[in-house]
UniProtKB/TrEMBL annotation:
UniProt-recorded name of the protein: Putative ATP-dependent permease ADP1
Keywords, comma-separated and alphabetical: ATP-binding, Membrane, Nucleotide-binding, Transmembrane, Transmembrane helix, Transport
SUPFAM superfamilies the record matches: P-loop containing nucleoside triphosphate hydrolases
Lineage: Eukaryota, Fungi, Fungi incertae sedis, Mucoromycota, Glomeromycotina
Organism: Gigaspora margarita
Record InterPro entries: AAA+_ATPase, ABC2_TM, ABC_transporter-like_ATP-bd, ABC_transporter-like_CS, ABCG_transporters, P-loop_NTPase
């Protein structure tokens, strides 16, 4: 018979008034409080109980007088240890099912009398307070930024009063000679051969040629980014590599590689502070930035963000000038540019080319630009021309205004209606045939240039006839083993060797520029690793400030994720196993469930791990994954890796702490936890740290297009498979299936 006591249902023994009969005989029996009595005489019970059919009720259960079976202490109540009394849960406490000792409510919850779950909607008040505090901090930073903008506008006004839009000449000029430069790939293909010439300071040189002619390769060989296989380089007459002077060499990549969320001034100031000499006063460095901004005619967009596809910023031409300005503020002696007019309209491309001419002539800088199909006016701004053909061989290298004269001497006449640059590109691609002449037979422009260069004459000597096909020489046929080695094995081995070399070099460079192993740089003494760390940390914080809307949306993501996890686990709890006396008479099919407690807390851990791992990995992606190319550009300019890495990690600490707090506050809204909030927060914080590190690791391995997929796999793997729940650790250690991979679970335990 079911009876309700204090809104708590239990099963009573038959009472006389119930008229319960068996074979016409009235059956009823008594049972004292704190015990349950299955029947007046039960043989199964009699073998295990001294009191025959009377069994002591275990703690966590409720057995009022005349109980036939034990029941769990009802939700909203707590029961005495002897299980014979039940009490309504007092105000300020929570009593889940099976409670013996009421659990105190935390400060963020409201618990009226008889509460089985805490009302934690005060958490939203705390979240709102935190959001307001963050917004106030951003507002304070905004006010300070406006004050800083006013200072820079004052400097800009002073610069305009000087009526100058020129930069001071460089302190050190470089004339670069190169002879017989060559490069052979691991596959045996020769992509550059016999390139010789001289780059003079105060002049601009355009490098032209069809696709695959080796324009970028030539620049990489000169700057030391690629190890040359043959030839030599002289700097101001001394046989040495430009890599030694990399702090005095500027390189402007084809793509506008910069942090798009920062402003023009932010980017140029950071570049100046990182790359200008240590002994230069900070105020002079900032003045240098103002001079470059005015020189590049960027003053009206000085405090505009660069922008990207999603957020509108400055125009493409202005972005290209900022790209050049990042190198100009470092006061280089040599400036290399890769396709500076790529993606620009003809008018903007002309502006960029005029700017390069102005830089070279006013500063005495050596300016070299790999350029593709410039307009006639843009082409005329260059002083010299290096024309490369297929296979990286020279077709012409000399004054730009002498190029047509040279090709005309070979029988290649440019039509009046055609652009000289386009005509020479067609000649380089082998699409133009020479005009028939009796005094000259030229079928190989490479050999023609070599003979012309060796003769040292101003015009081609027609007495020398050369008859060699212009087509590329075919490489010898290789067998499959050699091809497999050259195409697959050797590149991987070289990449690994280069990686280990770079890591070792970076480590020793770090030691060299630290306090204990300090050595000055004879070329230019730039900020040491500690100052570099502070500058990079400041830039990382500035990124966070510029992306403040995204930062708030990220915190909302963590909050919603925690709330969904909390809702999913709201009814999960631990309920102790039933008394063995009940299990002894339970049906066999229910026996396994009877003998084990109803433990759903382990699933709470799994849900929490998966939720935190998903959120943490997705947040950790953005730290390094979306600015790899910016890192590569900075390191090529001399930036150390370790200060950059440490600065990004330290700048991520506020994001990590606030994200874990948002998740923790949302996590407890629907879930009735029995520990303190600080303990839950610490667990979630350390899980976030591990997940954030996974995000760093994944973003370094895969491209940004594949980051989300890789992150989902990591989250499921670490949150579920390696959590010890599915499969269980017991099964992993005992099952033969996991014999050879069970060490993965050991690693997971130690790492976590």
């Amino acid at each position: 018979m079911r009876l309700i006591l204090f809104q708590c249902t239990y099963i009573s023994t038959p009472r006389p008034e119930d008229n319960f009969t068996v074979d016409g005989q009235s059956i009823h029996w008594e049972c004292p409080a704190g015990y349950f009595c299955l029947g007046p005489l039960n043989t199964s019970i009699s073998r295990t109980s001294d009191t025959n059919s009377m069994v002591k009720c275990p703690p966590g259960f409720f057995c009022p007088e005349n109980s036939a079976q034990p029941v769990y202490c009802c939700a909203g109540y707590y029961c005495s240890l002897d299980a014979n009394s039940i009490t309504l849960c007092p105000e300020g406490y929570v009593c889940n099912i099976g409670t013996v000792y009421p659990t105190s409510c935390n400060n963020l919850a409201f618990c009226p009398e008889g509460s089985s779950k805490a009302n934690k909607f005060l958490v939203f008040v705390l979240v709102i307070i935190i959001a307001i505090a963050i917004i106030v901090l951003f507002k304070i930073k905004n006010v300070r930024s406006k004050m800083k903008i006013a200072k820079y506008f004052k400097l800009l006004t002073e610069q305009r009063m000087r009526l100058e839009r020129t930069l001071d000449p460089v302190k050190t000029t470089f004339d670069i000679e190169f002879e017989n430069l060559g490069l052979i790939l691991p596959s045996g293909i020769e992509i550059m051969k016999g390139v010789s010439g001289k780059l003079t300071h105060g002049r601009t040189c355009a490098i032209m040629g069809p696709s695959g002619a080796g324009k970028t390769t030539f620049v990489s060989l000169l700057t030391g980014k690629v190890k040359r296989k043959s030839g030599k380089i002289k700097v101001n007459g001394v046989n040495e590599s430009l890599e030694k002077y990399r702090k005095l060499v500027g390189y402007v990549p084809q793509e506008d590689i910069m942090l798009r969320e920062l402003t023009v001034r932010d980017i140029l100031v950071h570049s100046a502070l990182m790359r200008l000499p240590n002994d230069m006063d900070r105020a002079i460095k900032k003045q240098k930035v103002i001079e470059v901004i005015e020189f590049l005619e960027l003053s009206h967009v000085m405090d505009s963000i660069i922008g990207n596809e999603e957020q509108r910023g400055i125009s493409g031409g202005q972005r290209k000038r900022v790209n050049i300005g990042m190198e100009l503020v470092a006061e280089p002696s040599v400036l290399f540019l890769d396709e500076p007019t790529s993606g620009l309209d003809s008018a903007t491309a002309l502006e960029v080319c005029n700017l390069l001419k102005k830089i070279a002539h006013s500063q005495g800088m050596t300016v070299v630009a790999a350029i593709h199909s410039p307009s006639p006016r843009a082409f005329n701004t260059f002083d010299d021309l290096l024309l490369l053909g297929k296979g990286g061989r020279i077709l012409y290298f000399g004054p730009r205004n002498k190029a047509l004269e040279y090709f005309e001497s070979l029988g290649y006449c440019c039509p009046c209606e055609e652009s000289p640059a386009d005509f020479m590109m067609e000649v380089a691609a082998g699409k133009v045939n020479p005009v028939d002449r009796n005094d000259i037979i030229i079928t190989n422009l490479f050999e023609a240039w070599e003979r012309y260069h060796e003769s040292g004459k101003e015009i081609f000597n027609p007495a020398h006839d050369i008859q060699i096909d212009i087509s590329n020489e075919e490489t010898p046929r290789q067998n499959y083993v050699k091809l497999f080695w050259a195409e697959i094995c050797l590149p991987y081995i070289q990449n690994i060797a280069e990686y280990l070399t770079d890591v070792t070099l970076e480590f020793f460079l770090f030691l060299r520029y630290t306090l204990y192993f300090y050595q000055s740089d004879p070329i230019r003494e730039t900020p040491n690793v500690f100052i570099a760390f502070l500058l990079l940390f400041k830039r990382s914080c500035l990124q966070l400030y510029r992306n403040r809307t995204q930062f708030l949306l990220d915190q909302l993501l963590h909050l919603v994720c925690g709330m969904l996890i909390s809702l999913a686990i709201s009814d999960m709890d631990y309920i102790g196993k039933a008394p063995k006396e009940i299990c002894e008479i339970a049906p066999f099919i229910l026996l396994p469930f009877c003998l084990k407690p109803n433990d759903l807390i382990q699933h709470v851990g799994t849900f929490m791990a998966v939720g935190v791992t998903f959120s943490g990995i997705s947040a950790g992606f953005s730290t390094f994954g979306y600015e790899k190319i910016v890192y590569w550009r900075d390191t090529s300019a001399g930036m150390c890796t370790i200060p950059y890495f440490m600065a990004k990690i330290v700048a991520d600490i506020p994001r990590l702490v606030i994200a874990s707090l948002m998740f923790s506050l949302a996590f407890i809204i629907f879930f009735s936890f029995k520990t303190t909030l600080i303990q839950i927060y610490i667990i979630i914080l350390f899980t976030y740290i591990a997940a954030w590190a996974m995000g760093y690791f994944i973003s370094a391995l895969v491209t940004k297009e594949k980051i989300s997929l890789a992150g989902a796999g990591f989250a499921l793997g670490w949150g579920m498979v390696f959590s010890g729940v599915t499969p269980s650790l017991e099964k992993v250690k005992s099952d033969d299936i996991f014999t050879y991979i069970n060490w993965l679970w050991d690693v997971s335990i130690y790492v976590s």
